[in-house]
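Field reference: sequence -> structure
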Amino acid sequence: METIGTPWLYLAFFIIVAVMLVIDFIGFKHQHGQPIKVRTAAYWSVAWVSIATMFGGALWLYLEQTSGAALANQKVMEYFAGYLLEKSLAIDNVFVWLMIFAAFAIPPALQRQLLLYGVLGAIILRTIFIFIGAWFVQEFSWILYIFGAFLVYTGFKFLRGQGEEHTNIEDMAVLKWLRKHIRITPQMHGDKFFIRQNGVLWATPLFLVLILVEASDVIFAVDSIPAIFAVTTDPFIVLTANLMAILGLRAMFFLLAGAASKMYYLPYGLGIILVFIGFKMLMLEVFHMPIWISLSFIVIVLTITAWLSIRHSKKYNETAL
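Structure field:
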């Protein structure tokens, strides 16, 4: 499989990821249990997007110097297309986290702690999934058609309004299994995941929430990772775009915490994008679509979706008044 990734590039990228995680941790640590303000979350969200953009620019400069402008343009467009796709799909993941925290009445201070673990888990799980997926694509190229068919199916589910049917917290299989097989205390015990009562180890509801956060990311990874392989099969681009989109999830969570109901048309936009890239994957042998078309399509659909959602929100507010 052709890739621009070298051991030094991977090492440099993982160092960047580690530094960004430390910055993320320090940036929210000073809040001391107070709710994160929307303005603060917005500043951090802009910062993460800016860092992802600068990484794309640095990647272009490196490739332009080492491999020429043509390859640099191609790979950087693949990176930004993958980044936008993963960022938009991550919004749906954030809404599921909101539902989980609301269902268990998790206070803001513990939300930040759980989200940190959630992002760390997502980075580890998705890195593993991406390399496994890249191996399958290299060894069994026909799996791209399975990915394509799955994306078309998932996209139509979103368009029919069924894209969030798996977000009913009580129906999650992992929650039912945990409640059946693990001793769980009825109340929270601060920030503890486990406690001992009369010499017996019990899990707390906070441990349940942590498992649900990680499980939800696995569920969404099933959609997002095949989707980005439709944009590029270069594992380095897949990995960098995916992790750059994930790193800003904590800030995005607090930014979107009060805006869940305003993203009315987001599922439909995601459905259109998934159907588009699914058909693109199915037509690989017939027509090779230039990456700039995919990137332009994703940008246009997300822009229209945001505009329609804003209009819908304004009309709803005017009607409510």
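Note: Residues 31-319 form one domain.
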